[in-house]
Amino acid sequence: MIPAPTVGISYPATLLCLVFIFLVPCAAAGLALISTGLGRSRSAAHSMMSSMCVLAVAALAYFVCGFAWQGFAGGPAHVALVGGKEWSWIAFGEFFLRHQALDGSPASLAALLGIFSVGLAALIPLGSGADRWRLGACCASTAVLAGWTYPLFAHWVWGGGWLAELGTNYGLGRGFVDTGGAGTIQAVGGLTALSIAWILGARHGKYTHEGLPTAIPGHNGVLVMLGCMLALIGWLGLNSAGAILYNGAEPGQTVQVAINTILSAAVAALTAAVITHARFGKPDASLTANGWIGGLAASSGACAFVSPAMAAMIGLLAGALVTFSVEWFELHMSVDDPGGSISAHAMGGLWGVLSVGLFARIPAMGDAGMHESGDTGQWLAQLVGIATLIGFVLPMTYGLNWLLDRMYTQRVAAEGERQGMDLYELGAGAYPDFIVHNDEFTER
Predict the structure, then answer these.
(1) The model's pTM
(2) Which of 46, 272, 315, 379 is the most exposed place for a label (fewest CB within 10 A)?
(3) What is the reported pLDDT for 8?
(4) Domain-by-domain residue ranges, the chain?
C-alpha cells in the first residue's frame, strides 16, 4: 500500500493522481501513430522504432540528471539574488534519483509524471523530422532535451523556479501557471521541432525550383485518427494529474478538467474541418487531426481554471490557429513539417499558455484569504513565460541541436531518403508484402 504523503496532497488524491499518470503513455502512443501515419510508408517502421527509442532515452536521461535539475517546489535549488529578491533558477537534487523517497509523496509523483512528460516532449520533434532524421541523431537530441532543456524550464514552472515566483516577487497573479504542460511540454517540444526542421531542411521533392510547396500526403490516415483517440485518453490523465500535483486540485475538480480537455479538442477539430471544407471544398483529415492535437495542447494551460464555455472558446481559436499556422510555416517560412508538430504543439501550446491569462480565474492566497485572480498581473506573468520560451528556449534548443549536427550529422544521406528510412537504417520495411509506391511524382 502507498503511504499517505506528508505534505500538500491527500491520500485519495495521491491514488487518483497515480491512476491519471498511468494514462499518460496513451498520449505517447497516440503521438507516435500520428507521426507515422503522416509520414511516408517506406519510413513507417523507422518512425515507430524512433518513437520507442526516444521514449527510452528520455526516461533514462531524466532518471540520470533530469529530475535532479527539475526538482519539486520546496526542494533544494540554486538561488540568485536579484533586486533584493531570491530567484530560483535550477534545482540541485541528486543524480539517479538517489535518496529520493519513491513513496507516493508529491515529489515522487512529480518524478513519475516527469518521466512520461519528458517522453511526450521528446516525441514531438519526430513529426517535424519525419522521413529524414537519423535514428542515432534523434536519440542524441532527445538526451539533450530530456537531460537539460526540459528539466530547466520545468523547474522554472513546476519546481518552484523564478517563473512560478513572479506572483510572490512581483505580484503578477499567482505567477506563471501551466496546469498540464501547455508551455512546459507542448511548447518546449514544439519549439525543438522547429529547430530540428530548420537544421534538417525540407525533404527532397517538397519544394519546386520556384520555392512552391508540393503536397506529400501521409500514407495512413487510419493510424492518424487512431492516434488522436489515444492522445485524448493520455491528455485526460496528463491534465488531471497536473491539476492535482501542481495546482492543488481536489479529486472532484478533475471532472471539470476532463470536460474542458474534451471540449477544447472537439471544438478545435471541428473548427479545422469547417475551415478546410470552406477553403478547399472538402474537409482535410490531416489538418483536422492537427487541430485536434492543437486543441489538446491548448487545453493543458487553463483546463483547471476555466468554465466549459471558455474551454470551447480556447479550442475554437486553437483549431483556427493551427490550421492557418500549418500553411504559414510551409508556404511562407519554407519549413517542412510532415507531422504538423510545430503548429499543433508549439503554436497550440503557446496559445494555451496565453489563454490562462485571458480566461482563467485562479484561486490565490491574499491578505483576505482566497480570492479570484484574473487581473492584468496574471496575463503579464503568462507573457513573461511566452517571451522566455521564444526568446530563450528556442535559441537554446536550436543552438544545442546545431552543435550536435556538427558532431554527428542529423540528416540521413540522400540515398537513405530515396530508398526509405526503413530499409536504409533498419534493413526491413513496415509493409514487406505490399508495393510501397515511390514519390517520383513529387520530384522536380
Answers:
(1) 0.95
(2) 379
(3) 65
(4) 28-442
